[in-house]
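User: Show me a protein chain along with its predicted structure.
Assistant: Here is one chain, sequence first, then structure tokens.
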Amino acid sequence: MIYLDNGATGFPKSQYVLDAMKQAFLTCGNPSRGSHSLSRRGDELLYKCRVLLAKRFGTLPERVILTKNATEALNLAIKGLYPRHGEVLTSDLEHNAVLRPLHALRTAGEITLKQFRTSLSDDGVTVENFRTAAGKTVSMAVVTHGSNVCGRVLPVKEMRKSVGRGDFLMILDCSQTAGHLPIDITELGADVICIPGHKGLYGPMGTGALICHPTRPLAFRTLMEGGSGVLSRSLFMPEELPERLEAGTANVCGIAGLGAALEEFSFPKKEKALFARLLEGLKEKKGITVCGYCKGGTYLPVVLFNKEGTDCEDLALELAEKEIAVRAGLHCAPAAHRTIGTGDLGGVRVSLGRSNREADIDALLEAL
């Protein structure tokens, strides 16, 4: 198979990741639930993964909360930090993992939700729209770092600087950028970033992390309560991170695999060249329209397109029959499709990863 669906999950995973998961399955007890060697082995694997994530994203190990995916991380961040009866700002390119938690809070009367307009052609316009929308009253923003639909990377560092208020919280959805771009939470000015372990980092599915700024105080409400392995006499969850947000038994095997993926991780070297080859080839194809791309912007290796006279789902199925894996539809981000202009039709998404080669691009273009 020619795999061009890395925006859904990075594939293939490595044997090193699988071996680490198998070793954890065979040798680990429940972390923080005993003084014996099997439990301690589980503790060591969790801490190792925290250290590697902290190093990769610019924070401290105790400020890394291990989750089952980016969606869980976003829910923990949004519902744990939102300003009660305050204003929250988001963009018009968001995934449902951001929009649905915010909509639930708005429907419950907990927040007022505002949306700013992004520009696919001018980062300066995006920054100014963000600054204007934030004004003096918005106290939290939840924004995608890079669109899962068209790959556009937002100027989040400049956006945060444009507000300039110390009490302004910024949560970033880094689901698509983690593993494709260098990310330092302090440099970006974010308070929280949420990542999956299984996409650009090539860890197992069912892993992710909520990563907090190393020094900024963050008072999280809890979404779940339960065993934490510490302070068991109290009926309340611990105040300290990461235990406050990690109720119950961890996915030790998955986290062991994520740690292994981080150990062997390196940024793909051919993505930019392959992305350019793909764009050029699609633009030369009669009846193909590339959607959401503007020359001069910063993009992830993600391309959205449609073929004249063909439903995107039908086209994806035809490609699948030729053993070419892409993803079609609305990509769990209908708002982004409306912004791009494909809200009624959806589109076919090609998302590149570390295993792709020029031959894969050429085979897709030939099949089209």
